[in-house]
Amino acid sequence: KTVVELNQVTKEYPGGVAALRGVDLRIERGELLAIVGPSGSGKSTLLHIVGTLDRPTAGTVAIAGHDVAALSDRRLSALRARHIGFVFQSFHLVSGVTAQDNVAEGLLYSGLSRAERRKRAATALERVGLGDRMHHRPHELSGGQRQRVAIARAVVGEPDLLLADEPTGALDSASGEAVMRLLHDLNADGATIAVITHDGEIAGALPRQVRIRDGEVVEDTRAKPEDADT
Ligand code: ADP
Ligand code: ADP
After folding, report:
1. Ligand number, closest to the Cα atom of 146
2. Residue 28 DSSP one-character state
3. What's the gap in Å between 42 CA and the centre of ligand 1?
């Protein structure tokens, strides 16, 4: 099943900057890939388009088979809430609120009861290795732990796609490695994950690299099967 399909996507900002130019991209269920490129190459713009936070100026975008252009902003928000989880460099947790309640926020629009949301949040926190940090607030957690809380919040609703924007950018290397290991584990359990990064080393450790430069996909490489788990 195809989770994301972009055909000839172009994004021009007012003033005439073409941040994306004719991008084709398919992401299949179960993939773990890097979208990699230098600063200014168009990564954030691509994240916004794939995340349905913004619409292209030309070309088509389909998320889990839904044509984004056919949806009103309101329906698009509903599609996003159901299908896409986001993780950011700076965590974006709610301060003063426990890890469990932060994660439960990821189910706010699920229609589940508050008790059920909190129960699933607890399970998700256990999944990311923070079962013993449930009642801690963000300022009581290390950076790596905060990012794992953010990942739990992003996946608690079992989205079709997890979009992680420089997820290790604010972390020391050991915490960053733990976060990348967690993303690998979640992928092994079936999650589809796209990591946006400028870091070639992080990208190189993933099974697929989509390289972008000046708004164009210049390379799309998959690891050979025999390299898969070395
Ligand atoms: P990256 O995330 O790889 O640094 P961006 O997608 O942020 O790249 O930017 C790609 C290009 O689009 C850059 O030239 C940038 O200056 C331009 N750009 C990004 N956002 C805007 C905006 N809101 N308005 C005008 N130009 C923008
Ligand atoms: P790290 O070792 O990853 O840098 P810290 O040294 O900040 O993390 O924290 C070590 C442990 O202490 C963490 O598990 C964290 O949950 C806990 N901790 C950190 N700060 C506080 C705090 N202010 N209150 C309660 N627990 C804290």
Report:
1. 2
2. E
3. 6
pTM to 2 decimal places: 0.87
173: left (phi over 0), alpha (psi -120 to 50) or beta: alpha
Measured CA to CA, the distance from residue 20 to residue 44 in angstroms comes to 10
> Is any ligand 1 atom within 6 A of the Cβ of residue 70?
no
Q: What is the pLDDT of residues 19-50, one digit of tens each?
A: 999 999 999 999 999 999 999 999 999 999 99
Q: SS3 of 29, please? A: coil
Rg (CA), the chain: 17
CA 206 to chain centroid, in Å, comes to 14
Tokens of 71: 């949806």
Question: ipTM value of the model?
Answer: 0.69
User: Which alpha helices (H) appear in 90-142, and where do they start and end?
Assistant: 99-104, 114-127
> How many whole angstroms separate alpha carbon 11 and alpha carbon 230?
37
d(CA 111, CA 108): 7
Both tokens assigned to 122: 């607890």
How far is it, in rounded angstroms, from Cα 101 to Cα 162? 20
